[in-house]
TrEMBL record:
The modification N6-(pyridoxal phosphate)lysine is found at residue 289. This is Adenosylmethionine-8-amino-7-oxononanoate aminotransferase. CDD domains: OAT_like. PANTHER family: ADENOSYLMETHIONINE-8-AMINO-7-OXONONANOATE AMINOTRANSFERASE (PTHR42684:SF17). The keyword S-adenosyl-L-methionine applies. It is an enzyme of class 2 (transferase). The record marks 24 as: Participates in the substrate recognition with KAPA and in a stacking interaction with the adenine ring of SAM. Belongs to the class-III pyridoxal-phosphate-dependent aminotransferase family. BioA subfamily. Homodimer. InterPro entries: Aminotrans_3, Aminotrans_3_PPA_site, BioA, PyrdxlP-dep_Trfase, PyrdxlP-dep_Trfase_major, PyrdxlP-dep_Trfase_small. Catalyzes the transfer of the alpha-amino group from S-adenosyl-L-methionine (SAM) to 7-keto-8-aminopelargonic acid (KAPA) to form 7,8-diaminopelargonic acid (DAPA). It is the only aminotransferase known to utilize SAM as an amino donor. Its EC number is 2.6.1.62.
Length: 455
């Protein structure tokens, strides 16, 4: 077999399916759904082994904020490889980790001053949950053992993160292994009362949360939220006033606020951090995904001096936060993150994103009167189109029909990676996308949706 044939899509897919078990996948699907071996990437484009290109409209699971192989990040990684690849962060330090911590403290909401590193988003949530619980224990409040989460929340798939997740697809199978969160109704504008504005829905949901805190504050460690957009729940969006009111309630009732900005941080919602739009500082800020520009796994939890000093004591006091990962603060990942933050420094990225967001909004107008679209929603460079059987009644398509999968297949035929969440087609492109590519992305979705809604 020639080298070209041995490295074709078909050959690589066959090898893969013999040994690899893929994430978030029913492997049986690949008996009919082609596996895509990607061999090259640049900017917003992926290229398969047969030379075909695909626009990465979902930023490779929302990570690739500045596109693939950004030259500034690549150069920083090559330089770091000539200096230091890895060293444990227990008892050691290195320039990339300490410099990145300084930068995160500089740009984080006011009052956040301590950085704890982990490997990925779920791990960051685990750290924040454990740190909140442990803080109250160290402070003599061992009665605080529970967490409040929004309905429809998603915070990851390790057991602690899954415990504060309310997406049945991920949670139900493992329910016997999980903690039981206290669920408060989401401020999701789409699910608000008929005729209610997003702000009115937020106000109503804050009243719901107040009643829950009145009953449960004494046993509650923290409220955990995804600010502005509940991503895995279907890009559910809500008004920023909910963040402002939530911070006030947490202060009033003496519980922590954990902001999971793993998907929505680093410019995705129009500001560097989504929390800024509510004018708040959380007690714990969880970061990952775009932190390294989508090049290497890294996460961070940024917290405050009050939290930090609850653990600061003689060893024999037993107050230390003994949580670790082998690759905590990996120098290569930290250097990639520093290079990513440098790309924000000239101040043009957020301004350019606002222009791209406006262009995306105009392009999405094509769906406003579509008979199978119940909602078109957008926050910054996150947008979603809600497919339904009937827009007037909002009757959904049965999940078993997998209409979203039809959109995905149709998108691939047009050189577009659209990976819907159930029947919700969403767009979360890299920031280096052009207006023309945004139009191309939406045009592919128009064709894909037309194919998907045919009976």
């Amino acid at each position: 077999m020639s080298n070209s044939l041995a490295s074709s899509n078909a050959a690589l897919a066959a090898r893969d399916l013999a040994v690899v078990w893929h994430p978030c996948t029913q492997m049986h699907d690949h008996e009919s759904l082609p596996m895509l071996p990607i061999v090259h990437a640049e900017g917003v484009w992926l290229q398969d082994a047969d030379g075909r290109r695909y626009l990465d409209a979902v930023s490779s699971w929302w990570t690739n904020v500045f596109g693939h192989r950004h030259p500034h990040i690549v150069a920083a990684l090559k330089d770091q490889l000539d200096r230091l690849d890895h060293v444990m962060l227990a008892g050691f330090t290195h320039q990339p980790a300490l410099h990145l911590a300084e930068e995160l403290v500089r740009i984080a909401p006011p009052g956040l001053s301590r950085v704890f590193y982990a490997d990925n988003g779920s791990s960051a949530v685990e750290v924040a949950l454990k740190m909140s619980f442990h803080y109250w224990r160290n402070s003599g409040r061992s009665d605080k053992t529970r967490f409040i989460a929004l309905t429809g929340s998603y915070h990851g798939e390790t057991l602690g993160a899954l415990s504060v997740t309310d997406v049945a697809l991920y949670r139900n199978t493992y329910a016997p292994l999980l903690l039981e969160p206290i669920l408060t109704p989401s401020p999701d504008a789409y699910e608000g009362e008929p005729g209610a504005t997003p702000a009115e829905t937020a106000t109503r949901r804050l009243s719901d949360l107040r009643r829950i805190l009145e009953r449960h504050a004494d046993e509650t460690c923290a409220v955990i939220i995804e600010p502005l957009v509940q991503c895995a729940a279907g890009m559910r969006m809500y008004d920023a006033s909910y963040l402002t009111g939530l911070r006030a309630l947490c202060d009033e009732f003496g519980v922590h606020l954990i902001a999971d900005e793993i998907a929505v941080g680093f410019g995705r919602t129009g500001t560097l951090f989504a929390c800024e739009q509510g004018g708040i500082t959380p007690d714990f800020l969880c970061l990952s995904k775009g932190l390294t520009g989508g090049t290497l796994p890294l996460s961070a939890v940024v917290t405050n001096e009050t939290i930090y000093h609850a653990f600061y004591a003689e060893y024999r006091a037993g107050k230390a936060f003994l949580h670790s990962h082998s690759y905590t603060g990996n120098p290569l990942a930290c250097r990639a993150a520093l290079a990513t933050l440098e790309l924000f420094r000239d101040g043009t990225t957020l301004e350019r994103n606002r222009g791209l967001s406006a262009h995306l909004a105009r392009a999405l107008e094509v769906f406003r009167d579509h008979p199978n679209v119940a909602d078109v929603r957008q926050t910054g460079l996150i947008a979603a189109v809600e497919l339904v059987r009937d827009r007037r009644t909002r009757e959904p398509f049965p999940a078993a029909e997998r209409r979203g999968l039809r959109v995905y297949r149709a998108g691939l035929e047009r050189g577009m990676v659209l990976r819907p969440l159930g029947n919700i087609v969403y767009f979360m492109p890299p920031y280096v996308i052009t207006p023309a590519e945004i139009s191309q992305m939406v045009d592919a979705a128009v064709a894909g949706i037309a194919s998907a809604v045919r009976e």
